[in-house]
Design goal:
The protein has about 160 residues and is mostly helical. The protein is about 65% helix and about 0% strand. It contains six helices and no strands. The termini are far apart. InterPro entries: DoxX (IPR032808), DoxX-like_oxidoreductase (IPR051907).
Length: about 160
């Protein structure tokens, strides 16, 4: 026997939704923590935001003195936003683009070159970012509380 709640969800449907929300939380938190940790490593390696800019410029990244510090700040702020579940669709797309840049300019050793700075990790992080951009934060993210969902209108209503 299936129990149907007033919301229209069944017990099985509620279990699936709850599981989905927990999985999205774990994925968001994992990605966000990795991004914040990476921002710290880059900052520590460069010694300052300007130092990170010099490193990016030396690596051949276009406008490295500008994109290096911007990258560190984005990974820090975007990582925190991802953990909290704020603006996940936008942050997810931007993180995916960030990972494309990392692949193109830094991790160029070819696929599966794990001992030679290969791109496997940045590809996986970029794909996870895209998945989260499409799925959103779930009910356990702040987006769920901050964004008012519109309900479709029926014909003849205003």
């Amino acid at each position: 026997m299936t129990t149907t709640y007033r919301s229209g969800h069944t017990r099985d449907g509620a279990l699936v939704q709850n599981t989905r929300d927990v999985v999205l939380l774990v994925a968001r938190a994992g990605l966000g923590v990795l991004m914040v940790a990476h921002a710290k490593v880059e900052y520590d390696f460069g010694g300052s935001l300007a130092g990170v800019g010099r490193l990016f410029a030396e690596a051949g990244v276009p406008l490295g003195t500008l994109t290096g510090p911007a990258n560190v700040l984005f990974e820090l702020v975007g990582g925190i936003a991802m953990v909290l579940g704020v603006a996940v669709p936008v942050v997810g797309v931007l993180m995916a683009l960030n990972m494309v840049g990392a692949w193109v300019f830094v991790h160029t050793s070819g696929l599966f070159a794990m001992d030679h700075n290969g791109p496997e990790l940045v590809i996986a992080l970029g794909l996870l970012s895209l998945v989260l951009a499409v799925t959103g934060s779930g009910r356990l993210g702040l987006d769920h509380l901050l964004v008012r969902r519109r309900t479709p209108r029926t014909a003849g209503t205003r």
